[in-house]
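I hope you will forgive my troubling you with a question about protein structure. I am sending you one protein, given as its amino acid sequence and as whole-number tokens for its backbone shapes. Thank you for your consideration; the sequence and its tokens are set out here:
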Amino acid sequence: MEEVTWGLLLLLTCLPVLKANNIDKNSPFYYDWENLQLGGLVWAGIMRIAGITFALSNKCKCKSDPNDNPFPEKATPLINSGCESHC
């Protein structure tokens, strides 16, 4: 039974390869992968240049007030001495 299963699995994996030799370039599912890859690389290059230009254009400055520090200058201790008598 295992040999039959392996045979069917091999047959099912080989059928698309055998069918791929008959390529219809007018089919709506045919993709020109080289032009698609080239277009993607061009788009990625344009986006990269735009990102670097935006980052270096000084338009995205972080305007923060030095007094708005999220960390207080003196932290309050979590455990105070003499806490045992009040708890």
The CA atoms of residues 29 and 86 lie 76 Å apart. The longest helix spans residues 33-56. The chain is about 55% helix and 0% strand. The radius of gyration is 33 Å.
